[in-house]
Target: Legumain prodomain domain-containing protein
Amino acid sequence: MILCFTLADVCHAYQVLKKGGLKDENIIVFMYDDIAFNEENPRPGVIINNPHGEDVYAGVPKDYTGNDVNVSNFFAVLLGNRTAITGGSGKVLDSCPNDHIFVYYSDHGGPGVLGMPTNPYLYANDLIDVLKKKHASGTYKSWVFYLEACESGSIFEGLLPKDLNIYATTAANAVESSWGTYCPGEFPSPPQEYETCLGDLYSVAWMEDSDVHNLQTETLKQQYELVKMRTMNESMVFGSHVMQYGDIELNNENLFMYMGSNPANDNFTSTYDNSLPSVSRAVNQRDADLIHFWHKFRKSPEGSPRKFEAQKKFFDVMAHRTHIDHSVELMGKLLFGYENGPEVLNAVRPAGKPLVEDWDCLKIMVRAFETHCGSLSQYGMKHMRSIANICNAGVEKEQMAEASAQACTRIPSGSWSSTFSGFSA
Model:
């Protein structure tokens, strides 16, 4: 069993597994762990994932935290390779041929890429290669992968084979954002003292379903259907399409094989009699930082340092976003012409095809862009499709470097500046 990375969601997921009867020795937790005792946390040492929820931080193992939360350690843990681990508890997924594995991963994302609290980020093809190696080792019977991230469907779309005994669900399809929930100003909203979203809509949906249902009788398919309905929302103005990939037949198995089951829910007999609460609105995951700074600014006393700081960070974020958006747009026009540039950058490949044919090209092009324009960062990850399309169009590395240099004559400074490191290894 293994968990990653957004803190409130991950802590809640741990509590689900713990109440399900799993032992800590069979749970591996990756979390940056920068929230519980952060000065911005209104309840020091406490983390909640629901407006009326209990503390989910208590008792959570800290196997890999801080800079130990990285791609290299994550892959080493999945493969059970202790010698490749640096830092952390050293705990790895030392599974056997008859074991059932559950992986929950929650972070920012973009087309073909997943975020990490540290750099570099995680590319889809590298993850799929690790899953194939794990399967070839014959060290598991079946594997369930829950993935929370924007464009999370692109991690498996056209990439995850059906013969690895791996079933995956994602918070969104390959072309849309995922959504935050329990956000300030929305309904239901967090307690008044909070200025941030408490969780992600897809993640909260599967965990709150697991909190109340008998997982000995509920199947993966039943949970998928419930989570899909809640995450899509009624109007589809605020929500995303939950997807399934890989060995879909595994969704007929019961959840307790992967998550255990809370004995307190043993008398619950029908999955569909207890509908999950809906939300009136949700927040695009990429805008969660703006929501935080705006509410911090709005609630701070006039003329206070706190108000000034919130305003500055809000403007820094907007400057960074404008810089990234403008740079990518101009680069496309320089490469393909002012009329054809937007069309090439925004093209979406047919369903069932991976984001890019040559993943090494994608990594090279990202490095070329970031060399001249600064880090894409969490927000700029949404432009990974545009850079993939540049690869698919056959552009050479030298052309990309030249266009990036012309597009980025300056990089805005500030705490959210693109001068901070990004995807490059």
Remarks:
- The chain is about 35% helix and 10% strand.
- The domain at 300-407 is CATH 1.10.132.130 (Topoisomerase I; Chain A, domain 4).
